[in-house]
Specification:
One of its GO terms (molecular function) is biotin--[biotin carboxyl-carrier protein] ligase activity. By secondary structure, the protein is α+β, with helices and mostly antiparallel strands. It contains seven helices and twelve strands. Bound molecules: biotin (BTN).
Length: about 260
């Protein structure tokens, strides 16, 4: 009984050859007068100014990978719960990758990893009215058919093709629909629920949970054991026998 059928998504997907950034393109569309439907999506074969988290850039090889963004209009959704959107998106991606035969996990706060390598990144940009999120632009970049990466990043980067036993190339547009279907179904089913179930599912998929892992905290190397996240998206880690809670600016994994 999902609102977002494959047909609905097909009617609301715009496929473009080249844009600066699919997130920025959606922002421009939003500022036009014509209202947009929820789940309107932009997929581009190439981005000239792909953006990443923390003002980083997202480089993606033309035609080989998937870069797309879509719109959500959450109702009565407090911005204090914005991390829930991250969790829904990450879980939707993880579920989709499982359907493609990959055992991926979520590297907090919102990267998707296979083993010790990054496969996918998420950039969510929210617009608020008062204390509520009224529009969320969800951007996803996922390495799909690219099989070689520059030496400087090859040790920490992977793709669907490199990780799967399937020799055939992945159909990028179909993957886009599969991701949208899974993310939107999790979004619809969790929007009105309390966040505990979502947090538990997210924590179940967490990269390096319950094992000693190395981090940089305030420039110092620490070993800690991840316990999970909370509703605010803070990472709970036991460091030196103490439970510490970090936001993503305070702590970084050492891969
Ligand atoms: C990250 O890991 O730093 C997040 C990367 C997000 C990249 C995607 S690609 C589609 C969308 N458009 C952008 O400019 N960025 C996101």
């Amino acid at each position: 009984n999902n609102t977002f059928s494959r047909l609905y998504l097909r009617q609301n997907l715009i496929v473009l050859d080249e844009v600066s950034s699919t997130n920025d393109y959606l922002k421009e569309l939003l500022s036009n007068i014509k209202p947009l439907a929820e789940a309107t999506a932009i997929m581009a074969s190439n981005q000239t100014h792909g953006r990443g988290q923390r003002d980083g850039i997202w480089l993606s090889s033309k035609d080989e990978n998937l870069t797309f963004s879509f719109l959500l209009f959450p109702t009565n959704f407090p911005s204090a719960k914005s991390f829930s959107l991250n969790m829904m998106v990450c879980l939707g991606i993880q579920t989709t990758l499982k359907q493609y035969g990959l055992d991926a996990c979520v590297k907090w706060p919102n990267d998707i990893y296979v083993g010790n390598k990054k496969l996918c990144g998420v950039l969510i940009e929210n617009r608020l009215t008062g204390a509520n999120i009224h529009t969320s632009i969800v951007g996803i970049g996922i390495n799909v058919n690219q099989i070689s990466f520059p030496e400087s990043i090859a040790w920490k980067t992977t793709s669907l093709q490199l990780e799967s036993s399937e020799m055939n190339k992945v159909d990028i547009k179909n993957l886009c629909f599969d991701l949208l279907m899974n993310i939107l179904s999790i979004y619809e089913s969790h929007l009105l629920m309390d966040t505990t179930a979502l947090i538990n599912k997210y924590n179940d998929q967490l990269f390096r949970k319950d094992v000693p892992a190395k981090f940089l905290v305030d420039g110092l190397e620490k070993v800690g054991i991840i316990q999970g996240v909370d509703e605010q998206g803070l990472l709970h880690v036991i460091v030196d026998d103490q439970l510490c809670k970090y936001d993503s600016k305070e702590i970084a994994f050492i891969i």
